[in-house]
Amino acid sequence: MKILWTILQSFIFFVLFAVGSFMHPFNLHWAEKRTPDGMHYFIPDGLLLALGVFLAIVIVQSLRKRTCDTPHTVLAFVLAVTAGYIVKLGFITTQI
Prior knowledge:
Layout: H1 2-23, E1 30-35, E2 38-42, H2 45-63, H3 70-86, E3 91-95
Antiparallel strand pairs: 1-2, 2-3
Helix pairs in contact: 1-2, 1-3, 2-3
């Protein structure tokens, strides 16, 4: 059951990362590098959304004294962020 819950949490974190990367709710841009073709930016909005929900879940788990579930939540967050970086969520290239 814990494996299923970890996979579900990972999916939720990944969806939040994707939605934030495409919708830009905070409108933050971090310049990665400049090339002759254009600028490469990282949009951290999705990562910040996923991190916020992760922290909220961990705080609720600690308030309910359910810290035995926290390693599974951390694993789900790390898996979702790793998958997001693999598919390059948040990375944008603009042409000059």
